[in-house]
Amino acid sequence: MEIEKEVKTMTLGHEFGAGAACLKCKDKCEGFELHFWRKICRNCKCGLTEHNVQMSSEENKKVGKLFEDTKYTGLIAKLKKDGIPSYKGNMITISLPIPKDVPMKSVTYEWAPPVANKYLAVRYIELLPPEKRPVAGTEGAAYRRQQMARQLPEHDQDPSKCHDLSPAEVKQMQQFVRKYKDEALGVGDVMLPEDMALVQAGGKDGAGVRAGDAPGGRGSGLGPGSCHHCQKSMGLGDPAVYAERAGYDKLWHPACFVCCTCEELLVDMIYFWKKGKLYCGRHYGDSEKPRCGGCDELIFSNEYTQAEGQNWHLKHFCCFDCDCILAGETYVMENDKPVCKPCYMRNYAVKCASCQGAIEPEAQRVSYGEHHWHAEPQCFKCSGCFKCLVGQRFMAVQGHLLCSVECKKKVLA
């Protein structure tokens, strides 16, 4: 019954973000219109995150569902109107005293580590690359939102966000989600290494850092250890990130808590641990299942195809422009996407500078700078004596092909 319910409620949310301007294409895009299954805009082929769509509530629901039925339920709250779990993203404003005779400074962060000690939270953020610090209204905040969408695709956890899954595929996906929630999913802990040493020694209860710790707290005075990622020493008094699934004998610099595949900061310290490595959600999924190059979903079917170094649902190996099925058909790769021959000729083929006809993908051609010619005697020839120049020395002057100085003088006289 649960599987039937999942199949019946599938939706890709085509109203969400409709008409939003593309931040990349500007006026070239008529506004966001979600492709039925590709997760991109029909008009400009860019993704949702590249359009001016406010994603906060939707992202919070997505991450809330990720943490549902896990030990991390403290990070979510049930929405009153429909009971959907929503992620408490920990957007906070912190006011800190700075040097004497200078007014107090307040900074709003779209996210900060959920620790009681505000100095520790601020120091953690200061140790991130400047362009990746989630200060509200900055490129760092935009980076966090983009990584939230990239690293934690909702179609990797929710069958209702996928396109046309069979009951068997829904069941497999549910088992996959349950498996990673039980075995891989985690959220990093921020602590001073000196305090963690005390916790491990049984001196504290492990509930978090002391509320009275000042910036650069001395802790126990024990050595802080080395980063599991870069192998360099931790700075004395600087916070470290710990991952429970990795074991508290391992620690990372804040800037080193990254996915082993894409090497991006793990957004909000949400990680997936597998065989001694940290993954973001997307690349953990890729390590477990093939991903379709057409719809970006993980493939739970036993039957799929491989082409151009990518995996594809059988129904999704289609022309990127017109969606016609490409099995057994001639296609051309454009920007790593397959395009049928008619669409290629109409939208991508270069024109012959001589006959002005589109050059077919399988046709031989000669290219010089931004100019192209059919590699045929009737097209690639001298403008002076009309000799075929295929395989010969030539010069291109003012749009003319020329075989010699004599022909140049003749044509340009």
From TrEMBL:
Segments forming domain LIM zinc-binding: 225-288, 290-350
Superkingdom of the source species: Eukaryota
GO cellular component: cytoplasm; focal adhesion
Single GO molecular function: zinc ion binding
Localisation per UniProt entry: Cell junction, Focal adhesion; Cytoplasm
Family: Belongs to the prickle / espinas / testin family.
Key words, A-Z: Cell junction, Cytoplasm, LIM domain, Metal-binding, Repeat, Zinc
Protein's name in the database: Testin
Gene3D superfamilies: Cysteine Rich Protein (2.10.110.10)
Pfam families recorded: LIM, PET
Ranges where the PET domain occurs: 90-197
